[in-house]
Amino acid sequence: MLRKIEYTKENLSNVIITKIFRCPICHNSIKISDNSLICDKNHCYDITKKGYVTLLKKNKLRIDNTYDINLFKNRTEFISKGFYSELHSLLSQIIKEKGTSQLIVDMGCGDGTHDNIILNLINDNQTFIVGTDISKVGIECSTNYVSNNFIPLVADLNYMPLKDECTDVILNILSPSNEKEMNRILKQDGIIIKVTPKKEYLCELRQILNIKEYENELQIEKNINKNYIILKKYIINEQKELDEESMLNLINMTPLSKNYDCNKNIEKITIALNVYVLKVSNQCA
Ligand SMILES: C[S@@+](CC[C@H](N)C(=O)[O-])C[C@H]1O[C@@H](n2cnc3c(N)ncnc32)[C@H](O)[C@@H]1O
Ligand SMILES: [Zn+2]
Fold first, then answer.
1. Of 97, 115, 111, whose CA–CA distance to 170 is shortest?
2. Which architecture, in CATH terms, is 4-280?
3. What is the pLDDT of residue 213?
4. Of the candidates 135, 190, 132, which has an alpha carbon nearest to the alpha carbon of residue 162?
5. How far apart are CA 133 and CA 151, in angstroms?
6. What's the CA gap between 12 and 47, in Å, rounded?
7. Model-level pTM greater than 0.85?
8. What does the alpha-carbon distance between residue 91 and residue 102 come to, in Å, rounded to a whole number?
C-alpha cells in the first residue's frame, strides 16, 4: 500500500488535475515538483506527509476553534453510519448524469466523508474530487481518503487556488459560499450543487439545546434565485432512529452543543435538506 503522500502525488500528477491549480499569491500556474507544488514565480507549497497541501493566500492559517478534531471525528462517524445516505445517492446520481471524468471541487468539505462516499458511489476512476476547507484539522481527517481520487487542500473558499473555468461540478454542502469564486472556477457547462438546511434539520437536537429551528430557509432560496438559475431543486426529509453511540456522535459533531452536558436521550433525528442544482446566469457571469 502506498503512503498518503504518494497517493496525493499520484493524484496531483493526473493529466486533468495537473493543469488546474494557480498560485494563491501571484495567480501563476503551479506545477508538481518532487514533494512540492511550485508556481512560475517560485512560491512553494509542500505536500505534507499526511498527504495534503496548504494553498492559502497568506501563508498563515486562520485559527478557528469552532471546528476541532473531536467534532470532525464525530462527523466522520455519524456520516459514515448512513444518516445522509439519501443525500449521497442523490448527489452521485446527479454527477453521473452529467458525465464521466468529472472534476469536482468541494468548497468547505470538512472531514471529506461525504466526498469519499460519493466517489465510491460514482465508481469512475477518472472522476476526482478536490476537497477544500479552511480548517487544517478537518483537512487532516480528510486525508484518510487520498487513496480514493480525493485531493485534500487547506484553502479559503474566498480565494480558491484554482484556475478560471476548470471545474465541472462544485459541491457546497452546509458550508458558506462565495458566488464570485464559484462562478470564476466553474466551466461554462458546469453545475453547482448546493445543499442547505431545511427548517426541520436536526430539530430534535436543537430542541433539547433550546435553540430555535433554522429560520432563514426562504432567505437563502431568495439569494440563490438572485444569483443563479435553479435547474432543479430536491428535498430530502428523513427521520432516522438513533442508537446511543450515534446520538453521542450527533451531539459532538456540531458546534451547537459545545459545553452541553448530555442528560436527555434523543431517539430520532431529522435530516431535512434542500439540494439545489444551479447554473450561473449570464447576468452574474
Ligand atoms: C458545517 S461544516 C460542513 C462541512 C462538510 N461540508 C459537511 O457537510 O460535513 C462547514 C465547513 O465550512 C468550512 N469553512 C468555513 N469558512 C470557510 C472558508 N472561508 N473557506 C473554506 N472553508 C470554510 C468550515 O471549516 C467547516 O468545515
Ligand atoms: Zn506564485
1. 115
2. 3-Layer(aba) Sandwich (3.40)
3. 78
4. 132
5. 11
6. 10
7. yes
8. 13
Q: Is the CB of 8 under 6 A from ligand 1?
A: no
- Distance (Å, whole) CA 269 – CA 160: 34
CA distances from 89 to 84, 117, 122, 269 (A): 9, 9, 9, 19
The reply to whether ligand 1 has any atom less than 6 angstroms from the CB of 161 is: no
CB of residue 109 inside a 6 A radius of ligand 1? yes
Any atom of ligand 1 within 6 Å of the Cβ of 130: no
Q: Which ligand is nearest to the CA of 79?
A: 1
Domain spans of the chain, in order of start: 4-280
Encode pLDDT of 174-204 as tens digits: 999 999 999 999 999 999 999 999 999 999 9
Grid coordinates of 12: 496531483
Taking the centre of ligand 1 as the mean of its atom positions, its distance from the CA of residue 109, in whole angstroms, is: 6
Residue 32 has pLDDT above 60, yes or no: yes
Q: Is 19 left (phi over 0), alpha (psi -120 to 50) or beta?
A: alpha
Residue showing cell 432512529: 241
Average pLDDT score over residue span 45-50? 97
Question: CB of 110 closer than 6 A to ligand 1?
Answer: yes
Q: How far does the centroid of ligand 2 lie from the alpha carbon of residue 159, in Å?
A: 14
Helices (H), 103-198: 113-122, 136-142, 179-185
**Pocket lining: 140 vs ligand 1, CB cutoff 6 Å:** no
Substitution site in 61, 69, 75, 134 for ligand 1 pocket (most atoms within 8 Å of beta carbon): 134
Measured from the alpha carbon of residue 116, the closest ligand is 1
